[in-house]
Amino acid sequence: MDNDLVVPAIVAVTLVTVAIGFYGLRLARTTSDFLVASRTVSPTWNAAAIGGEYLSAASFLGVAGLILKYGVDVLWYPVGFAAGYLALLLFVAAPLRRSGAFTLPDFCELRLGSRRLRTLATIFVIFIGWLYLVPQLQGAGLTLATLAGSPYPVGALVVAAVVTANVALGGMRAVTFVQAFQYWLKLTALAVPAIFLALQWQADGRPAVTPPDGSTFRTATTVVVEQRAVLTLADGQTLEVRPGDELSFAEGEPVPEVSGVANGATDWLLPSAAGSDDRGLFATYSLILATFLGTMGLPHVLVRFYTNPDGASARRTTLVVLALVGVFYLLPTIYGVLGRIYTPQLLVTGQTDAVVVLLPEAALGAGTTGRLLAALVAAGAFAAFLSTSSGLLTSVAGVISTDVLGRGSVCGFRLATVIAGVVPTVLALNVSGMDVSQVVGLAFAVAASSFCPLLVLGIWWRGLTDAGAAAGILVGGGAAVSSVLITVLGPGLTGWPATLIAQPAAWTVPLAFTVMIVVSLATRRRAPADIGRTMLRLHAPDALRS
Amino acid sequence: MAAEDALPAPRRPDPAGTSDEPVGSGPPARTRVVLAEVSRRPHWPAGTHTELTQQTRVGEALVRGLVRAQLALALQLSAVVMVGLGGLPWLFAIAPSVGRMTVLGVNLPWLLLGVLSFPFLVAVGWTYVRLAERNEQDFTDLVQRPER
Question: Which residue of B has its CA nearest to A543?
């Protein structure tokens, strides 16, 4: 791909991000400015900022890539990513804002009064934050490698450096403006090319997405394989390919079937059926549970709620976010589906995450329109990496600076930012084979099995004790963390164990809730004495508080 | 923002923590916020709503009632989502013919998940915000009812 507009577009986005950061820097003076934007951010800005922060590489690139690869079953990713905000709205938003807690560790201390629980929560916040940062940097490396031909580490390092510097120097107020700007940029960057793509598809005579005799290459294509796979060619011959192999296909030649991908029309187009695919059904439900309940446990999402002035506005902001995010998630599906027609070679190379950035040129040709749209998409993708990483880094650094370094100073926050940025960068340089969305899915599973039960029970049940909360987080969250580690590092599993480990939420979330409730009941005497006062503070209407 | 215009006008709560700021033009005075210590600020000035703050049995019962009403509302609406969305994989699994149905040339599961699920979620969220605010208003009216 030689598109001379891509690099300028990426540089422009980065410069604007840094510029808004510096604009904010002039306003940021004290520690409280840095961390909570002084609670003077208007709800509209705040909602756009939350949306901008939330729509990550997984949403911008990953969802379309997964749809291209697996079809209808992975539509649950965007639905779940959006529905997570509904769960947050129903169970957490207003009480959490009224509690005055700024981070999850704050909430632990405030509700249960235990320093040790606070430490445990801190460890989980840092783990989830880092786990979520890795795929962002990975996406950046992949995008630059695909579009500008630079080596994979360059993109990851560029994003890591820009974000670390911006957060360290500007703090959260700067980040709020940046995030809000980036929501609209991301929406535009997917919506405008999607319109052109749909028109092009019309003009091409509406080619079928799943033609009865299999997909074919629309143009002569040379493919460089990047992931090990077994291909089944049209004549039934099988071929094992490794990274680096080159294959050429003539125009009109059928796309080979690739192992590990939904190839046939029925596989891709239709949901998994009972009996034949019980494991698929389990994985679907597990994914639904993880994404619905995981959002409320993500550290960068919760921090934002503190910037609402009161509980009622926290609720309204969440509703606006749900709408903004829902509008955005209509778009990746279009890319995944049209990718089936215009970029089938990605199924063979294994780099399905690149579909969003490659599709405009593949469908519209390398003319000016195609190149402009490709540059726009690349800019949007970079906005996604920058904004989500900034949010994550702000919250991880906030936790490190107050709970690990134990200093509330601006200088401490800057030091913490650097520490928080280095670790995931090192990790990202060493992991590259995984789907961006899958790593993000694991972060959701850990959040859903640790912080979701803590928040829901802590807000709604008087009987929760510190011992119960700690046990639930250790057992449920621990099980989810182990699953992540086995998935990333461990041996390849097959059959049911593989499914249970790859999509753990369906068993770890109920486990966490059960342990938390049972241990709390067993240690009933440890329940905080001032629980009545705490419940009043969490739930009493804002009108009664002044 | 259009989505916000559609909401009922907020009942004006005085934002917590800002009541000590000067009224008038110019930027509001900065309040120093130190993470976990935020919570330790007293929110309830003496003399108002004594039943609530002094943890009398009546106050306790009132708060319990509010919490129960809000939780019931949240659970009812999540049940709506659980049936409306959570039932879909199960439906597609036991009745594969539903998955094959097409509307305007698009398979039903794609239309339901890829498009219609988002407005559905927003509608549920909107309902929640409206009803939760009504619960709070009822509670406020109850507490601020003039003494006989």
Answer: B13
Report pLDDT digits (tens) over A472-519.
999 998 998 888 888 777 666 677 777 777 788 888 999 999 999 999
**Structure pTM?**
0.81
Specify whether the CB–CB gap between A171 and A394 falls below 8 A. yes
Res A276: pLDDT? 56
pLDDT digits (tens, 9 = 90+) for A128-154: 888 888 888 888 888 777 777 777 788
Distance CA A339, CA A344 (A): 7
Pick the closest to residue A302 from A397, A404, A176, A392 (CA basis): A392
Three-class secondary structure of residue A223 per DSSP: strand
Of the partner residues A38, A47, A270, the one whose CB lies closest to the CB of residue B100: A270
- Where are the extended beta strands (E) located within chain B? 102-103, 106-107
CA A460 centroid distance within chain? 27
| Contacts with A106 from chain B: Cβ below 8 Å | 35-36, 38-39
Q: Which amino acid is at A319?
A: L
Give the Cα separation of A533 and A359 in Å (integer). 56
The tokens of A407 are what?
Answer: 């200093």
The percent of chain B in helix, strand and coil, each rounded to the nearest 5, is 60, 5, 35
Find tokens 């690099």 and name the residue: A7
Cβ atoms within 10 A of the Cβ of B37, count?
12
For testing contact with chain A, the best of B104, B118, B128 (most A CBs within 10 A): B118
